[in-house]
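Quick one, C-alpha cells below:
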C-alpha cells in the first residue's frame, strides 16, 4: 500500500510539473521570452535566423542516421557476406547452435573491421581530419568520406546488378562510375553480396554433404535404418573440418574474396 501511495504521489507531482511548465510556456510565447530554472534555461525566439533552423534540421538528420548505424554497417561493409557464410558453415557441419550466435556475430565484426580498415583509414585522412581541422565544409566532407566506401562497393558489385537497378530507377547507362548515384549502388551491392555469400556457402556444403551420403549408404547397407545418420556423420564432419584446418581456410577465403 505504501508503495502504491508513493507511486500515485509521484505521478501527481509529475503531472503538476508538466502542467506548470506548459502554462509558463504558453504565457511566455512573446518574442525573446525566456524561462529559467536552476541548471536549466529555455528560450523561445521565433525570430531565429534560417541558418539556425537549417543547423537544427541537420542535427535531426544526423541523429536519425546514428539510429540507423547498425543497418548501415551491415549493408555497406563486408559484414553481410561474412555472417551468411559462417551461418551456412555452421548448418553444413550439423551444429545449428555451435558456435552460438553471439560468437558468430563477434567473429563477423572482427573480420569486418580488419577488411574495412584500409577504407576507414582513407576516409579519415581525406574527409574526417580535414573537416575537424576546419579545412572543408560539411557537404564536401560527406562527399569525400563516401568516395572510398563507394569504390569498395563498386569492386564487389556485379555489372548485371547495377544495370538492373539503373533500369528500375529509369536512368540511362552512365558514362563513368561517378555518374551512378549511391541510391542505385546500395541495393546492387547488397544483391551481389547475397549471391557471393550463397555461392561460397554452396561450395562449403559439398564435402559435408558427401560425408552424409556415405554414412547414410553404409548404415542402409548394414540394415541400421533406425539409427539417425546425422548422429554418426557429425563426428566425421568435425574431424574432417579439423584435419583440413577449416577455420583457417574459411577466414582466408573470406578475406581474399574482397581483394581485387
Amino acid at each position: 500500500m505504501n508503495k502504491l501511495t508513493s507511486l500515485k504521489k509521484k505521478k501527481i507531482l509529475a503531472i503538476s510539473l508538466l502542467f506548470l511548465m506548459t502554462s509558463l510556456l504558453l504565457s511566455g510565447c512573446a518574442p525573446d521570452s525566456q524561462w529559467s530554472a536552476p541548471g536549466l534555461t529555455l528560450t523561445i525566439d521565433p525570430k531565429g535566423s534560417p541558418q539556425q533552423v537549417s543547423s537544427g534540421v541537420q542535427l535531426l538528420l544526423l541523429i536519425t542516421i546514428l539510429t540507423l548505424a547498425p543497418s548501415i554497417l551491415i549493408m555497406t561493409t563486408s559484414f553481410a557476406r561474412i555472417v551468411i557464410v559462417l551461418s551456412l558453415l555452421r548448418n553444413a557441419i550439423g551444429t545449428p547452435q555451435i558456435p552460438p550466435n553471439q560468437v558468430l556475430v563477434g567473429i563477423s565484426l572482427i573480420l569486418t573491421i580488419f577488411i574495412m580498415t584500409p577504407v576507414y583509414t582513407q576516409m579519415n585522412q581525406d574527409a574526417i581530419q580535414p573537416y575537424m581541422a576546419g579545412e572543408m565544409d560539411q557537404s564536401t566532407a560527406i562527399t569525400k568520406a563516401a568516395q572510398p566506401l563507394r569504390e569498395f562497393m563498386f569492386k564487389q558489385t556485379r555489372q548485371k546488378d547495377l544495370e538492373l537497378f539503373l533500369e528500375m530507377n529509369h536512368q540511362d547507362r552512365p558514362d563513368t562510375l561517378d555518374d551512378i548515384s549511391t541510391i542505385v549502388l546500395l541495393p546492387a551491392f547488397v544483391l551481389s553480396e547475397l549471391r557471393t555469400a550463397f555461392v561460397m556457402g554452396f561450395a562449403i556444403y559439398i564435402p559435408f554433404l558427401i560425408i552424409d551420403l556415405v554414412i547414410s549408404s553404409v548404415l542402409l547397407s548394414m540394415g541400421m535404418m533406425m539409427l539417425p545418420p546425422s548422429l554418426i556423420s557429425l563426428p566425421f564432419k568435425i574431424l574432417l573440418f579439423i584435419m583440413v584446418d577449416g577455420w583457417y581456410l574459411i577466414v582466408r577465403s573470406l578475406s581474399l574474396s574482397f581483394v581485387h
